[in-house]
Specification:
Elements lengths: L3 H14 L3 E3 L5 E2 L5 E2 L1 E3 L8 H18 L5 E5 L4 H11 L3 E4 L12 E2 L7 E9 L3 H12 L3 E10 L3 H9 L4 E6 H10 L5 H12 L7
Parallel strand pairs: 5-6, 5-8, 8-9, 9-10
Antiparallel strand pairs: 1-4, 2-3, 6-7
Helix pairs in contact: 1-2, 1-6, 2-3, 6-7
């Protein structure tokens, strides 16, 4: 039986160690949307660390076995989740496709790369869920191609309420290997954050659009 809370804490620890996640409340990052953020997550860094890469592959595959035992195809969201989807598909011995943000402008002009049968039972893989908009765009594209979406699995999520609501509205269950709440627990425990910084990061998640202004 997978202990999901322990996995979430262990992975949060690893992501901090390899600097896939950086916490910088005193000097916030600026997202493309203009939001000021005390955290930056780049899970592509995982690919450069074989031990962490193996851990993520095995835990994601086991979670899919647990949550979606009837899965037939793994689909990665371009570009950040393509490599992870390939690793997980290999672990599960399943076919894999990936979904572009927009159709290719030449050749076959594919939006979905790979062979996807109609009504195939698909689990979508993401590296990170923030607002969820790009993730759910991929879900829409797969459904329009005839896929039966069982759900989505991601490495990490900030846990924004609007994202949770969007997944619910799209009837797309979401599971993640780790999340913001477990990250804060781990960061405080390892003294990455002091109490004041932990409060600041907690406040950011509640109202990210206005934080730091």
């Amino acid at each position: 039986m997978v202990n999901e809370s322990e996995t979430a804490k262990r992975l949060a620890e690893l992501l901090l160690q390899i600097k896939a996640i950086e916490l910088r409340p005193e000097k916030p990052f600026t997202w493309a949307s203009g939001i000021l953020s005390p955290i930056y997550c780049d899970n592509r860094v995982i690919l450069s660390h074989p031990t962490v890469r193996t851990y993520v592959r095995e835990e994601m595959a086991q979670s899919i076995r647990t949550h979606y035992p009837t899965v037939e195809v793994i689909a990665g969201v371009a570009t950040g989740a393509i490599a992870l989807a390939a690793l997980v598909a290999q672990e599960l011995n399943l076919p894999m496709v990936y979904v572009r943000a927009s159709a290719k402008g030449h050749g076959r002009q594919n939006l979905i790369e790979g062979q996807l049968a109609k009504n195939a039972r698909v689990v979508v893989i993401e590296d990170l869920v923030s607002t969820g908009m790009s993730s759910l765009q991929a879900v829409d594209s797969l459904r329009q191609s005839g896929a039966n979406i069982l759900g989505m699995g991601a490495i990490f999520t900030y846990g924004f309420q609007n994202a949770l609501d969007a997944f619910s509205q799209k009837d797309c269950p979401l599971f993640t290997l780790s999340d913001y709440a477990h990250l804060l627990q781990v960061a405080e425990r390892r003294n990455t954050l002091n109490a004041e910084e932990a409060i600041a990061l907690s406040q950011w998640r509640q109202e990210p659009e206005n934080w730091g202004k």
